[in-house]
Specification:
Elements lengths: L2 H34 L6 H28 L8 H33 L13 H19 L7 E3 L15 E3 L5 H37 L1 H7 L4 H33 L5 H23 L3 H15 L1 H5 L2
Antiparallel strand pairs: 1-2
Length: 312
Amino acid sequence: MFPSAVYFGFFLISQVCIGVLSNSSLFMALMHTLLSQFHLMRPIDFLMIHLTVVNNLTIIVTLIPYIMVSFGIRHFLDDTGCKVILYARRVTRGVSICTTSLMSTFQAITISSVNSKWALLKPKLSAMIMPSLLIFWINNLLIYINVIPHVRAIGNFSLVGRGYSHAYCQTGQMKTIDSWLYIIVILAQDLVFLTLMLCTSLYMVSLLYRHHRIAKYVHRCSSQTPAEIRATQNIVLVVSCFAFFYCSNNFFTFYSLSVHEKIPALEAISAVLSSCFPIISPFFLMRNNKLFSKYFCFTVMRFICPHTLFSG
């Protein structure tokens, strides 16, 4: 065990702490509003609740194995553990891209003008959330189930061949056409949602641009509010963040798949990149979020002067 590996382990621990704390804080703020002031909840807030849960799962299943291997723990996962961890990692990653895409689409519909063809969907947004999330989970659970039979634990930590490798796990070498077709299907699904994400983001950016150009006209003819504009800016930041880290992570992943001799450092970098979005995105979503601000003030005041808050 090298000192550099230990330092990297502490770095990953800090990532886990920051990511879980930020996602949990946003989750608690939204849940507090849901239970105490339901009328303030917007359709997109329910998607944020779901995304924070998915983010925490992604952070844990992605980084915990690399933390263990950084501290020299050799046999943390067996074959069963590898199947569970890699399957959960792929499913949560797939659900994350679907949820982020849906958030971007919902926000684009929300800020569209009353004369837009999307305006007819505004009253139906709340009813579309649960069916959409259920479809996302079922779809990703079924697509990635093919990962399970091909995953096994690494015995000697020396990997050779074209296949996916992990801190403790590896897949079989991709020698058949079916293996590459399966990867193409996964990429096609991701590409559809990523394209939808980018298109809706560009649409929102164009609306914001027109809002700044002809602010008075927009306020007179549209139902937009400053809060919706701030929310739109936050969603655009989230989408941009997701696209950057998604493309970066895929670059390292495909490079690792294409080479015969595996480089553990590249696998660790890929894991860090795949966890950056779930760690950073809550900060964008909390930015200028009134629900989080109210919850934060309420929590601080409860600790500072609890008797004043609960006195009759």
